[in-house]
Design goal:
Pfam families: NMO (PF03060)
Strand order of the largest sheet: 1-9-8-6-5-4-3-2
Helix content: 40-55%
InterPro entries: Aldolase_TIM (IPR013785), NMO (IPR004136)
Protein name: Inosine monophosphate dehydrogenase
Distance between the termini: 21 Å
GO molecular function, one term: nitronate monooxygenase activity
Number of domains: 2
Strand content: 15-25%
CATH topology of the largest domain: TIM Barrel
Order of helices and strands: HEHEHEHEHEHEEHEHEHHHEEHHH
Bound molecules: flavin mononucleotide
Structural class: alpha/beta
Keywords: Flavoprotein, FMN, Oxidoreductase
Length: 346
C-alpha cells in the first residue's frame, strides 16, 4: 500500500515524515537533517531566489558529505514555492541547477497555473516530481485533471500557516479525496496528510485515513535547525489547547499592508493581540500602527504583547521542547509504528 512514495523517495523510511516547506523558516539545514534521518526534507520558498539558492547550496553541502545518500541524479530534498508570488522564470534556473527531488506548489492564483509550472518544470528537470498542496476534494480533482501531480498534500483546517479558508479536517478530507480519486481510476496518486499532526498518534491516524506520509509544520518549528525567533518559539512552547489558542483569520495577512493572498486563503496563527483588537473592532490602521512599532522591538512582536503573526496549527499543545530535527523524525516514525501495532490488537 505504501509502495509508491517509498519507491520514488528511496532513501526514506516508512512511515514517511516530511517537514513542511515553511517559507522563511525551513532552510537547507532543516531539510538536510530531515532527509538524513530518512524523511523528506523540504526547503520553504522565500520571496528572494538568492536566499533559496543559498539554502539549496547548504543542503547540497550537507547531503553530499553524507555518503550513504545517492545525490547523483537528484538532490534528495524538496523545494516549496507559491505560484501566486514566485516567478516561474526565476525558479526554473534553480530547479535545473539543483534538481530537487520534489517541487511542491501551493496557493496558485488559478488552478491552471499549476499546469504551467508542472509542464515547464518537468521539461527542465524530468527527475523532479511535482507535488501540490490543497485543501479540498474539489481542488484535488481539478489539480489532478490539470497537471497529474506525482503526489498531493491534503491540508486540513487544523494546519498552521496558510490554507483554504473553508476547509475540513484530515479525518474526512483524506478518505474522501482517496475515494474520489479511486472512483476516477486515479487511486495511484499518493496522498500525504497535513494539518494538526504533531506526533506518532496523528501520523498513525493519517496513515489509517489513506495517506502515505505526513507533513508537519508546527512540530518542526521546534526543531533546532529551523530558522525561528526565540520568542516565537517560546510562545509556541507555552501554547496549549490549540483549538482555543490558535485561530484562522485573514487579519494576519493585513498586518504589514493590504492582503496579497488569493481570496480562497486565510491563515492559522496563535491568538494574538492584533487578532483580539480586530475582533473588538479596532481599526486596521491602528492595528497596523501598533504592529509595525512592535516588530521593531527586541522581541520582534512575539513577546508579551503579541502583535506579530505566530503561525501555528492546532497541534501546538503537543509540542513541549526544542529537539534536533532527526530526533523528531525518528521519534514520530517509531511512535507511529507503535500506535499502529497497538490498534491492530483491538
Ligand atoms: C510557520 C509556517 C509557515 C508555512 N509556510 C508555508 C509555505 O511557505 N508554503 C507552503 O506550502 N505551506 C506553508 N505552511 C503550511 C504547511 O505546508 C503545512 O500545511 C502545515 O504546516 C501543516 O500543519 P501543521 O502546522 O499543523 O503541521 C506553513 C506552515 C507554518 C506553520
Amino acid at each position: 500500500m505504501f509502495h509508491t512514495l517509498a519507491k520514488s523517495l528511496p532513501w526514506t523510511q516508512s512511515p514517511l515524515i516530511i517537514n513542511a516547506p515553511m517559507g522563511g523558516f525551513a532552510g537547507g539545514e532543516l531539510a538536510a537533517a530531515v532527509t538524513k534521518a530518512g524523511g523528506l526534507g523540504m526547503i520553504g520558498g522565500v520571496f528572494n531566489m538568492n536566499e533559496l539558492h543559498d539554502h539549496l547550496v547548504k543542503a547540497t553541502e550537507i547531503l553530499h558529505a553524507h555518503h550513504s545518500l545517492d545525490c547523483s541524479k537528484n538532490l534528495p530534498v524538496g523545494v516549496g514555492l507559491l505560484p501566486f508570488i514566485s516567478k516561474l522564470e526565476e525558479a526554473l534556473p534553480l530547479i535545473t541547477e539543483f534538481k530537487p527531488r520534489v517541487l511542491w506548489l501551493f496557493a496558485a492564483k488559478k488552478f491552471e497555473d499549476y499546469a504551467t509550472w508542472s509542464q515547464q518544470v518537468r521539461e527542465a528537470s524530468p527527475d523532479t516530481h511535482i507535488w501540490v498542496q490543497c485543501g479540498s476534494v474539489t481542488a484535488a480533482l481539478r489539480i489532478v485533471e490539470l497537471c497529474k501531480p506525482d503526489a498531493l498534500a491534503m491540508q486540513g483546517a487544523d494546519a498552521g500557516g496558510h490554507g483554504f479558508e473553508k476547509g475540513a479536517g484530515i479525518v474526512s478530507l483524506l478518505p474522501e479525496t482517496a475515494d474520489a480519486l479511486q472512483c476516477r481510476g486515479l487511486g495511484h496518486i499518493p496522498l500525504v496528510g497535513a494539518g494538526g499532526i504533531a506526533d506518532g498518534r496523528g501520523t498513525a491516524a493519517a496513515l489509517a485515513l489513506g495517506a502515505q506520509g505526513v507533513v508537519m509544520g508546527t512540530r518542526f518549528l521546534a526543531a533546532k535547525e529551523t530558522i525561528v525567533h526565540r520568542k516565537y518559539r517560546a510562545a509556541l512552547l507555552d501554547a496549549k489547547d490549540g483549538g482555543q489558542n490558535t485561530v484562522r483569520s485573514k487579519i494576519f495577512d493585513e498586518l504589514r499592508g493590504p492582503n496579497i493572498w488569493p481570496e480562497a486563503y486565510d491563515g492559522r496563527s496563535l491568538v494574538t493581540d492584533s487578532y483580539t483588537d480586530h475582533v473588538n473592532g479596532v481599526s486596521i490602521e491602528e492595528i497596523r500602527k501598533l504592529h509595525n512599532e512592535a516588530v521593531k522591538g527586541e522581541d520582534a512582536g512575539f513577546g508579551e504583547n503579541k502583535r506579530a503573526v505566530i503561525w501555528a496549527g492546532t497541534g501546538v499543545g503537543l509540542i513541549n521542547k526544542v529537539e534536533a530535527a532527526a530526533d523528531i523524525v525518528i521519534q514520530v516514525r517509531n511512535a507511529a509504528c507503535e500506535a499502529l501495532q497497538r490498534v491492530a490488537k483491538f
